[in-house]
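Table S2 (continued). Query chain:
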Amino acid sequence: MASEPQRPILIAGGGIAGLTMALTCHQLRLPVHVFESTAELKPLGVGINLQPNAVRELIDLGLGDALPTIGMATKEYGFFTKFGDEIWTEPRGLDAGYAWPQYSLHRGELQMLLYRTLRERLASSTDDAGSASSISTGRRARGFTNHEDRVELHLDDGETVEGALLIGADGLHSAIRAQMVPDEGPPIWGGPIMWRGATLSQPFRGGASMVLCGHARQKFVSYPLTAPDDSGRALTNWIAELWFDPSASDDQHRGDWNLRVEADKFLPAFESWRFDWLNVPELIRATDTIYEYPMVDRNPLDRWTVGRTSLIGDAAHVMYPVGSNGASQAIVDSRVLGRSLRDHGVTIDALHAYEAELLPATTAMVLRNRSAGPDHVLQIVEERSGGVFDDINDVMPYEERASFAANYKGVAGFSIAELNASPPLLGPVA
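Corresponding output:
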């Protein structure tokens, strides 16, 4: 008598977290069904950074050759005053001694790479797990019901789908999290508003640097997403940020990542930011499409798992994007959960093992990013000197700056020595 087919692992959300989780399930030969709310995936968004710990996992998923075609290997990371004077720079990726590179790339291009790869692998699968797997677009998660032997995912169109486990990877406004924590309320806005864009421009500082300039109330971040083209220009991502009193408005918690605005809304504040190596207003003016959204997060949860349902990525631990580790952590989440599924089977025990390993560390990152992320060094220098100095060591000694940088790497999980020495989470795909 034939055995009953294994129920699939259900994933709500087809972003970076959900697609990495699906590829990991495919690697483990576990049937998986992804439900993405968008009817047609498109390369939306702006630039993100992938730290070496996440790049390592994408390489193990067989994407190592594709990453250089959609991004730029980051070689330098630096902090500068509002006048463009150097506070701290350090090598990154392979140049820093990591065994894996760091990449700056377009979020949408990474999502599309993951999506194409998943569809190709599912289409070519001949085993039962692969043929039973699928990805559905235009299907938004509404809620779930746990049972002793299965979980039901309820979709907006009224359909209910059964699975062995449910992974909520549906982002900042997660319906799965909202059911777990019904009284949580909207995301928390702490005061910063960000304007983001990308445009072709002349490279700065060697063409592979990520720079952060200014202080807590006014900041500018920029980095290239591609190598220079035939004209010598590279697609350059930038973020302009201003701080506002959060008590003065109750409308900034919306977390709308697709609100387009004109540069006039914020450009006057950056008009004088013309450095020897970067002309900030020129870069902003050259950008056709600018997006505005508030910097928001949510308070850490004391659990991500309820019955046969758990959370990953932003649905579990959305954090301020000050340490370049939001997307990286989503990828690591997926791989750690995959290892738990390998070690514990498709069981509730696997969900709890994953949660026990990562929840304390991500809680620390969420709280650290609110007040003392890696860019807090900018505010320290601003408070001590107003950004004016002849020698940065007179303001903030080298040892203090180095300790600050090393401490954050440890909190975020990408200390060079520890990461290089650590065993792979799952290892490469066959």
